[in-house]
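Hi support team,

I submitted a single chain yesterday and got back a structure, but I'm not sure I'm reading the token output correctly. Could someone confirm the output below corresponds to the sequence I sent? I've pasted both exactly as they appear in my results page.

Thanks,
R.
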Amino acid sequence: MRKEYDLKALKVKRRGVLPGLRGKTADRAKVRVTIALDRDVVEHFKEAAAQRGALPYQTQINQALRQVIEQPDAQALKSALLQDKDFIRTLAREVAQR
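Hi R., thanks for writing in. Yes, this is the structure output for that exact sequence:
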């Protein structure tokens, strides 16, 4: 160890949100977790990440999870559409034309 260090040349590595940004981006701050996923799921995202210009696989998994939580409740939408007589008539016409 040295007796003295040049603190001006010291590079500080910082983790997490910068102090000046705390509270402003708290909902988007990354949190490190340990999670067990099926091997084929991880391989799927790793293969996608291997493509040129693709995002890292962890980012892709995060985006897929975000899509799921931000989309409207699919079951509620399905129930509403099945109750809508105009939708059923229009759908029946479309199916008949094909």
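A quick pointer for reading it: The mean pLDDT is 84. Let us know if anything else looks off.

Best,
Support desk
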